[in-house]
Automatic annotation (TrEMBL):
GO molecular function list: oxidoreductase activity
Identification of the protein by name: D-amino acid dehydrogenase
EC number: 1.4.99.-
Any Pfam family the entry gives: DAO
UniProt similarity note: Belongs to the DadA oxidoreductase family.
Domain FAD dependent oxidoreductase: 5-401
Keyword Acetylation tagged: no
PANTHER family associated with the record: D-AMINO ACID DEHYDROGENASE (PTHR13847:SF280), SARCOSINE DEHYDROGENASE-RELATED (PTHR13847)
Organism: Benzoatithermus flavus
Gene3D superfamilies (UniProt xref): D-Amino Acid Oxidase, subunit A, domain 2, FAD/NAD(P)-binding domain
The keyword Repressor belongs to this UniProt entry's keyword annotation: no
Superkingdom, taxonomy of origin: Bacteria
InterPro entries, per the entry: FAD-dep_OxRdtase, FAD/NAD-bd_sf
């Protein structure tokens, strides 16, 4: 394989993981990002779950009903804000067309398969680098407040089982045996689905430590450098203009999350990626409280949670709000209310760290790989709410495609069309 100079555009978990795989293949790698540190946008404070056991497609008949109700309600897990942006309406139409039962099942199967491959790749990266990132194995619990919801979910989970994911229904007593945090609140939920293979970890910590590891081995990180444009000639990228000069390489990888689409349009790439905002609260544990040991989701309130050792993080809401990073303390009130009911001693609720981030979603909820008309520009973007779960698998796939190899995992249905 010919060694090249490769520029990775974007230093989130996807970009840094891609830099690692390219470095492993012997390439000279440079990463450029407008932020001062890696993982400062979508990867900064996400849920942290690595969750094949929760890989259902968001685009589904249920999502359409919820979004319709969100037109006049503001207390739902899915929220809709009207946008003037024509790209938003194009994206919404494509999303709507994916919201059939058949498409939801098909997309879920593809999501699960990529989850399992990527989880395996993550373990390989950690074994190679020794990076610590607050990893917790032992599974995840998906809680249901009502019996009928639990039974429906147990039946729906067959699609995950068919793809090789272990998921089983447990009673409140069994959930308390798996994670003692539920012992004092067993009467507050009907049961749970337990996915023993799921895990969690701090995506920001992983990304920054992997970047530092790579930096010690010669990978260049040009942080605090904003991309102003991509220069092309015929069918090739000839350089990337930034506010600090020009970046030139033999090949380029576009991993700018939600900003991949607007940047792509400047060079003729039509990427169906649009931001869906999520909210998170991080609480200090401070050694005296009773946080959940394992990650999971309160399915009736749709908030996720994970323990990072000294902190517990809770995340919720998928808001169709465009490129809006803003948030208010009251945005987190429903999540915190539900969290206190289940985990009254999870952490110091008086010292919340609020955050909102933009998930780079595609209509079918799957990432986009490959290249368009430009022979030396590769795309690795559109990972939505599964970026942390999919990062290492997507990175290996991209490195293989760039090298002209057929990836171990079949991504033929996720390739960029041109």
């Amino acid at each position: 394989m010919m060694q090249m100079r490769v520029a990775v555009l974007g230093a989130g978990v996807i970009g840094v993981a891609t830099a690692y795989e390219l470095w492993c293949d012997g390439h000279e790698v440079v990463v450029v990002d407008r932020r001062e540190e890696p993982a400062s946008e979508t990867s900064y404070a996400n849920a942290g779950m690595i969750a094949p056991g929760h890989a259902y497609a968001w685009s589904s008949p249920k999502a359409v009903k919820t979004l319709f109700r969100a037109l006049w309600r503001d207390d739902l897990a899915l929220r809709f804000r009207f946008q003037a942006d024509p790209q938003f309406w194009r994206w919404c139409w494509k999303f709507y067309r994916q919201c059939t039962s058949e498409r939801a099942a098909y997309n879920t199967r593809r999501k699960v398969a990529l989850c399992l491959y990527s989880q395996q790749r993550l373990h390989g990266v950690v074994a190679d680098t020794g990076i610590a990132y607050g990893a917790r194995r032992g599974g995840a619990l998906y809680l249901y407040r009502r019996r009928e919801g639990l039974e429906r979910a147990a039946a729906t989970a067959q699609i995950l089982r068919d793809e090789g994911v272990e998921v089983r229904m447990v009673s409140p007593d069994e959930a308390a045996e798996i994670d003692p945090v539920y012992e004092p609140v067993r009467d507050r939920f009907a049961g749970a689905l337990y996915a023993p293979g799921d895990e969690s970890g701090d995506a920001r910590l992983f990304t920054r430590r992997l970047a530092a590891w790579l930096g010690e081995r010669g990978v260049a990180f040009r942080m605090g450098e904003t991309i102003r444009g991509i220069e092309t000639e015929a069918d090739r990228v000839t350089g990337v203009r930034t506010d600090k000069g020009k970046l030139q390489a033999d090949a380029y990888v576009l991993s700018l999350g939600c900003y991949s689409a607007p940047v792509g349009r400047t060079i003729g790439l039509d990427l169906p990626v649009y931001p869906i905002k999520g909210y998170s609260v991080t609480l200090p544990i401070e050694g005296r409280n009773n946080p959940p040991t394992l990650s999971g989701v309160d399915e009736d309130n749709l908030f996720a949670f994970a323990n990072y050792g000294d902190r517990v993080r809770m995340t919720a809401i998928a808001e169709f709000a465009g490129y809006d990073w803003s948030y208010r303390p009251e945005d987190f009130a429903p999540m915190l209310k539900a969290a206190k009911e289940l985990f009254p001693d999870a952490g110091n609720y008086d010292e919340p760290e609020y955050w909102a981030g933009l998930r780079p979603m595609t209509p079918d909820n799957l990432p986009i790989f490959g290249r368009g008309r430009l022979a030396n520009l590769w795309v690795n973007t559109g990972h939505g709410h599964m970026g942390w779960t999919w990062a290492c698998g997507s990175a290996r796939i991209t490195a293989d495609l760039l090298a002209g190899r057929t990836p171990e995992h079949d991504v033929s249905t996720m390739m960029l069309r041109h």
